[in-house]
Amino acid sequence: EEEYESVLCVKPAVLVYRVPPRASNRGYRAAEWQLDQPAWSGRLRITAKGSTAFIKLEDKSSGELFAQAPVEQFPGIAVEGVTDSSRYFVIRIEDGNGRRAFIGVGFVDRGDAFDFNVALQDHFKWVRQQSELARQAQDLEQGPKLDLGFKEGQTIKLSIANVKKKEGGTGSTRPRPAGPGGLSLLPPPPGGKSSSGERPAALSTPAQLPGTPITDSLLSWPQPTAAPAADVWGDFAKASESASNQAQGNTGWVQF
């Protein structure tokens, strides 16, 4: 995967100083640099490509590169702070041909020096996190893998609660008694007796009118209240007498 270069920090004003050789292992001191006579001034830009950060000193107007310091570890030998100030640092520049030199850089504003330091810290904190994630992923790949597949002949049993029994299967539900014509009736109250202690009366069969057979389909319909027998036969007699008179007038039949 191709790496791209990102910008971490830009400071428009930075001063560059010549650093005298260190006489002992003690740290650098900015008071020895002739701070009132900087060797160069310009712009500082910190970029990152992959895990490496680059401190670039550029011309303010043209952006031409004056010097560059690759940083592979921080804190480290590539960037060191001085012992007598928080605004000055010593960086190791390289020209790409193997030649190296140590120069001093300083910021007029203390806040710019703080941003410079934090930008490098954040970048290498991210590098350590990425390295840890890569190591964990490698350990997972090399470790034993969990096999969740079924072995040959292995079965699994599922227990599912609250499953309704199929219709028509054996169960404790008692069938409802069927009335005339196959009509299902509700079961009698507990004890088979009504609230007064008497057995409920049987359902009465609807009266059958002459010439009207009672069928199963008629029983399933709501039955109207039957009129008194005298009225039913009276209406039927009137209808029969009217029909006989009309037939006699048309055909000459004699009524018996």
Automatic annotation (TrEMBL):
It comes from Peucedramus taeniatus. InterPro entries: NECAP_PHear, PH-like_dom_sf. Belongs to the NECAP family. Pfam families: DUF1681. GO terms for biological process: endocytosis; protein transport. The gene is Necap2. Involved in endocytosis. Keywords: Endocytosis, Protein transport, Transport. Residues 161-226 are annotated as: Disordered. Its main location: membrane. PANTHER family: ADAPTIN EAR-BINDING COAT-ASSOCIATED PROTEIN 2, ATP-BINDING CASSETTE ABC TRANSPORTER-RELATED. CDD domains: PHear_NECAP. This is NECP2 protein. GO terms for cellular component: clathrin vesicle coat. It comes from the Eukaryota. It is found in: Cytoplasmic vesicle, Clathrin-coated vesicle membrane. Residues 214-223 have a biased composition (Polar residues). Residues 4-160 form the NECAP PHear domain.
